[in-house]
Every structure is written in structure tokens, then in C-alpha cells.
Amino acid sequence: MRPSDHEVLILDGACGTNLQEMHIPATAWEGKEGCNELLNLTAPDKIIELHSAFVAAGAMVIETNTFGASRIVLEEYGLQDQVEAINRAGVENARKAIGGKANTYIAGSIGPGTKLPSLGHISVEALARAHEEQIRALALAGVDLLIIETCQDLLQIKTAMTTCFATLEALGLDIPVMASVTIERTGTMLVGTDIAAAAVTFEPYPIFSFGLNCATGPMDMESHIRYLSRNWPGRISCVPNQGMPEVVGGKTCYPLSPETYGREMKRFVVDYGVSVVGGCCGTTPAHIRQLVQTLDGVKPAVREVSA
Q1: How far apart are CA 271 and CA 48, in angstroms?
Q2: Cα distance between residue 170 and residue 95, in whole Å
Q3: In which domain, by residue range, is 70 found?
Q4: Is position 296 within any domain?
Q5: Residues 204-241 pLDDT 10s
């Protein structure tokens, strides 16, 4: 799976916020509410239903429901021995949702976990072992690409990247790897790193794309995307939230309509040459459907990258 630089690759939308709106049987949680990844095993029909909605909306890439399916996260629910089973089921659920649809791919989602090495929460060695276990499970289950996303810590990024490529080499597999950092509204990652430092960190790795996801809506990502447009030599991804979350009546809501979301995302493609787009928290199948329609026939701008 290696689309041309001149094509726009459209990912799906949010997993967690959409699952919150679905009727999930109480028994499916097995007393472990909040562990969305467990639903790959206990409520696969619901996960397939969600994936299928994004497939029907026109998404070209379906991310597996495995964002928190590393040992680091799963052990908080007593599920540390289910890493392989949960990741394998996540891939199978995505595959069932896609069916035989051509040019639709499965991305194995790998989140940062809940412990950052730069803050002393976990050792690099333990983090590497957890990443290796999940990456191996996703790769052997047959994903078309891997996405290491919502990165918040340079040491976590280096550990994840080094482990990922070492694991793929050991398995003899050539799977594209996407990487995505999360820049807070403060203008830096959680541990204070800006987009320029993050880009330098990722530059040595042979990644399929590099960009941003989560934390903010598209408007707050513009300065960072502009920087990458001028300085990052490869594909750029932009996967924002449905705007900045707001609390309305005690409930978290996201403000951007599908039309506004689609319009803002198109600007990134035509103005900054972004070629990988999708949705993070809050984005629904309606947002992805609008994105597909808005980008129909649109090509990424040709960029001039600084030497």
C-alpha cells in the first residue's frame, strides 16, 4: 500500500467518541468500562458496525480499535495477557467491515500508552517491550500499514520508531509506518517540544508520512502544518479533532459541522500540500463523508521544501 505523493489518502474518523454514542451492552464491558479495546472481543458486532459506517462514508483507511491495546494500558484493566488476542481481533473486525471493497486499507493504531518515559513513568526498555508485542501482533494479523499516533514525548517517539522498524525487519515484513504527534493549544507537545524539534526527531526514520492528530481542531493546527509544508520532505498528515471540545449541559461536545470541517481540511490540501487527512475526536461518518466529497478531484499542492 503505497499511494502516490500526488494522491490524497483519506482516513476514517473517531473511534472512542463514536462508541460513546452507540448502545453497547453493559455485559460487554465485563466491569472494565473505558477499555474500548476489549470490545474487539466482547462486542465485535459494534466495532464492525462503526468501521462499516466509515467505509460507507468513503474512508480509504480504517484504523483498528487498538489505540490502547498495548500491555501498558491493558494491564490497568487486568487484561495484560490479552494483548495478542485483542489486537488480532481488532484487525479482523476491520477486515470484516471492509469486506471486498477495493482500495480500502487497514491501519493498525498504536497509541502512546499512559506512561511517558521522559516523565519517569516507565523505562525505555519496558516501553520498547510493550511496543514490540503490539506491533508484532498487528503485523502478523495482516495490517496494511501501522500508525503510531498521538505522540507526546520525544523519548517515547524514538522508542516506538526504533522498536517498530526493528520488529518489522525481524519479521521480514515491509509495512508502511505513519507517525503523528499531538501539539497542544500551547503550541508544544505535552512535554514541551515544538513541531520543529519533532520533525528533526522523525527525519532519520523511513516513515510513510508525518503530521499531527488530536488535541485541537484544524484551525489551531495551521501554523504547525505550515511549518511542515515548508520543511518536511515527505508526506504530511493532518487528523484534527472536530474543533476544540466544549462542555454543554454537562456533556463534552465538538463544534465543527461536517461542512466547516471539510472546508478547513481542503485548505490544508490545496494550500500546504497535505496528502493524508482524516478525523480524530468527535469526527463522525458524516464528517468523513463530507471530507470525501469536498476533496473529490482535489490534488495536494506541490510544495517547495527548504533545503
Answers
A1: 35
A2: 25
A3: 10-213
A4: no
A5: 999 999 999 999 999 999 999 999 999 999 999 999 99
